[in-house]
Each structure stands twice: as C-alpha cells, then as structure tokens.
C-alpha cells in the first residue's frame, strides 16, 4: 500500500508539472446571436426558407479531439432563429466526402454516440454554469436528449418534446431543429433580452474528430457549462405553467405454466391509466401516475455471473428514469472502475413495482415532485404498490434535499421509507460533492438503515477522491458496508465489507507514440482492490488488475490485455452458475483480452476473453458480440457467452455454461421500429424473447404491440414460463 501511495503521489506531481492543457474557462465567452422572426418555419432539413438568410454566420468551431485547440478539418455552420413558439437551429456539418463519410448504425432513440455522427446542443437557461439540457441528432434525424447536472449526474432517459429533420448531400449533412419554448427551462425575468449559456459539439465519427463552438479540455465533456459560450439576443415568452397529460389504454393476453394453483393459467384484461406532468414553474415539476404500466419498457437480459458481487440490472422504466439523477445518490461501478466492484445505492427505483425476479407488481398510484434551482434541489416520490399473492400492499416514500454552494459543490440528504403491514424499513443518508478545482473532486456518503421486521440496524459509507487531467486519471475510493445494512429500497453489491479501491489511468499521446495514423493513445492502468470483512477486519479478497496494454485506435477500435492476481478467503459457500465452492483460502491468476473493431462500421465485433486459474481449478470465459448494420434501417447482432469450468471447487467440477443471444432492429424511420431479442441459457435450458413494434404516430405519442416470453426457475428449481401479448396506445397532449 505504501508503494502504491508513493506512486500515486509521484504521478500526480509529475502531471502537475507537465499538464498545461487543463485550461480555465475563458473570461470572454464566445457568442452566437439569435434572430427573431414573426413567421413559422416548416422543418424539413433543407434550410431553404428566406428567414435563414437573416442570420449571422457562427464563429468557427475549435477542435477538441484528437488535437485540442486546433482548427477542425471539417467546419460546422450554425444559424439560430426564434419566434413566439419555437427556438430554431439550422446546422450544416460540412464534409469533403459528403454522404460517404456518414456513420450511423441504427434508429434507436438515445442512440450510442460511439456509433454515429452527431451534433449536440447544450443549454444553460439559468446561467448557473452547472446544469444543462442537451439535444442531439444524427444524420438521419434520430433524437438523443438528456439532462446534465454539474457534469457528474445525468438523466439520460429524459425525453423532451422537440422536432428535427435532416438531409444528406455530397457536401455534408444538414439538421433543422425546432424546440418549443415550453420544453426549455429558463427564468422569469423583467429583462427584455436574455443571453443563455450555450455550447455545441460535433463528432465526425469516421475520423473521431470532435469540434466544439466553445472549447473545453478534452478530458472533460461539453456539459461542463462553466466552459460554455453564449446564445445571445433571445426574447423568449415568459415561462408559464404547462401541463402534459399522457393517458393510455392497454389490452393483454397472459399465459402462465408451471405455477401453483393460485395463479390463473390464462387471463385477458383491459387496462386504463396514464401520467400527468405539470411544470408549475421553470424550477418545479410535479408528475402523477395512476394504474402505472411499463409494457413498452425494454426487457432485462440474462447475465451469467461468476463473481461474488450481485448483478445490477439497470432501470428501464421511463417514469423512474426521469430525474433519476436527483435521487441517484451513491457509488456505482463506472467504466473507469473507480469504485471497483462495489455499488452502494440507498435508493434504487427497481425496488418499486418489481419483485426480485424482475416480474411486475401493479402500482395503483404515485407521484414525484422535483424542485431545482441555483441554490438547492428538492425531490419527493410517493408510490402505492398493490398487494399481490404473498406480497402485501406497500407504500414507498423517497425524499431528497441538496444545497448547492461555491463552485459546483453540494451537500444533501436522502430518506427512504418502505412501509408494509409487518413493519417498515427506513434509510437515512447524507452525501456531498466538492469540486476542488478544474481537476480535483471529492465525493462522499454516509447511510444508516433500520428495519422493524428484523430489528437490525446497519451502516454504510464511502469517500472518493478524483484527479483528472489530459494525461492522468487518479482516484482513491474507500467504502464500508456493515453486515446488517439493509436498504430495502436500495442496492448493495456486498455486505460486511470494507473496500479499498485506488487506481491510476495514464493517457499517453506523446511524440514517441508510434503509428499515429492508426493509433490515438496508449492507456496503461492499474486497479487494485482490497476487501476486508467489516465484522472481523480480516482480509477476504485482494486483486491487482494491471493493464500493461490498452491501445485506442483513431477509428474507435481498441485492444487491451490485463492480468489479475487474486486472493479469496471464502467465509461462506459460493455457487457460480451451479458450481459449488466450499469455504477456504484461494489464490489464482486471471488473464483478460479485450478487443473491438470500429463500432460504427457495417460489421463490428467486440470480444472479452478470460482464462487462468480459478478456485482450485481453471475457468475459461469468452464473450463475443457481432453486429451487422448495412444501413441504419436494419441492425442485427448476435452474442455468445461461454464459461468453461475445469475441476473447480472441492468436487472438482467440470462443466460448460453457454448463453446465446440475438437482437434485431428494423426501422422504416426513427418513429416506426420493430425490435426483438432472443436468449437461451444452457444452465437451465430456459429461453427468453421479446418482440416490440413501436410507432410514434405523433411526438411522444405511441402505439405498441409487444410479445414477451420469460422462462426461469423458482426457489424449488421448478421451471416456469410466462407469455404476454400486449397492445397499448398512448396519447400525449401538452397545454
């Protein structure tokens, strides 16, 4: 540990001396001027309306990647108009290769930005330099939108009401965008003219060249709004309360096999319900839901887990995804692995309306209140879950408060209550985030739980320090979860543990880097993890994951190799994929190879292959995903996961477990799509599949046809299946 601490210090000091590229925000902000018009534009992606000629050309963009600060090789022109209803953008992404340069693999809303050309707009209507509303599109008019808070919390599944059309030509592609003022958030003011914080970036995916209207360090993102420019000369209408209602009607046929007599083998039903969103003012939003339904939500995928940590399935239901960042307090496993395998979330919305197997439980009624301002954020969720079978009717409450101060600091609290007739579970949490400069930050949390049913109390906490520059990312995360910490409305990957998870990540792009035409960066790293049992203080797990090789190519492809010496002290029996491993001490070494071709290509392959010793035997694991996307209208991917155990555990078990998946997306346009996936697991010979036809017949109003089949085993290892055929129509009206 002393050696690691010294290494972290030396690298940090060296990076301070070398890194002059993390610049401070410019005191003079770059400006784009908007022009007021009285007419309405027909959004077609052509920019041939006479009104566009009234605008002034925008300042030239500045390159962020791969050469920060240089002029881009392909220019972007931006023009801005507005009337009483809409804020319009006309954007021309110039390209010498024209349509031949365009990359886009599908028509999925909130598409994967690594697979598409895109342009992204970010608005800071309150000029707090902390928060942003983001709207992005690709060359086919597919939408991606989300909310950003302090560039650390994101609501990626927020869907705004806006319109975009695009065209493609031999000189580039054009996006014409109309955003209703009602969708945007800005203050009520006596000033006749407003100037908003604004930034915009473009990714030319063929060469991974990112350029931006207002420059920012390449290790940050365009959502660090203290680096934003300005959108000037706006005269928006005064914000007023607006209401969106979205009722639905649904009919379904359900069939169950393998269940006990209490479950009807077949059932047909008709269901009504809906949601109401009331924007009381620019800071305050109230959401109400009745007879809530999530038939259109993407289904969970099976995962074969061979680690000692619980699998985390992400939330996929739209009502809970919006404003999730406000309530999403805790430490999670990010792509940079800064928390190691530990995840501590005092609130996890999947605990509402779903059982432990992911089966839906009806929600009778619920509401969410959110207030956000420059100084503070307040949120509350109240839900009533219907009693079903052995699960009694349950009330849920989540309350959140955070106070902003200084330069992107905040402290806050979270309270969750799960109330059932047999007792309540209550969890109280305090947290804080402190940005200690452009490159330094500290994230902290402490949480306490008490459960009336068990009479037990527990505690969890963590502190996480980050240093980020254009050359290094360095972190140290210290966390603890006691044995009896039980957030019934949350998620914890492991109990009775003290976790120490530091790490160092080096991005090298120096002069000695070879093959610069193909190679963008060499990124070696080390991620040690140490886990002690909280109740005894004994070391129960130690891993050193070292990446001597990680090469990022200019195309977006990558290849990497890691080695992980591991020590495990099992204090209880462990059964990965049915292979029984008794308690005891184990030392083994795992090797991993990671590789991906360019994910934006017509045919792309991603693979992770692991081999080496494992709990007294050997384990070879492979995961391969192949995608074929000849045109954005059609995408087909297949995935194969294999775990081959050789003489593992006390019984020297040798077995192979395979998981097969195939997924397809077929789209006439971004608003009419057929999506399906199929999975089969050899461990239990069970199959899951889901087919969904989605038609957005007008903005955010949908018709869905869904067929879902789930196979699983109950606690008695008895096979059960569910089949659901669903037709649903929803209609959105905004007042």
Automatic annotation (TrEMBL):
Occurrences of domain DUF5916 (ranges): 245-354, 438-630
Keywords in alphabetical order: Signal
BP GO terms, sorted: carbohydrate catabolic process
Signal peptide segment: 1-17
Domain (Carbohydrate-binding) ranges: 45-203
Entry-linked Gene3D superfamilies: 2.60.40.1190
One Pfam family, short name: DUF5916
Gene Ontology terms for molecular function: carbohydrate binding; hydrolase activity, hydrolyzing O-glycosyl compounds
Cited InterPro entries: Carb-bd_dom_fam9, DUF5916
Signal among keywords: yes
Protein name: Carbohydrate family 9 binding domain-like
Organism: Spirosoma fluviale
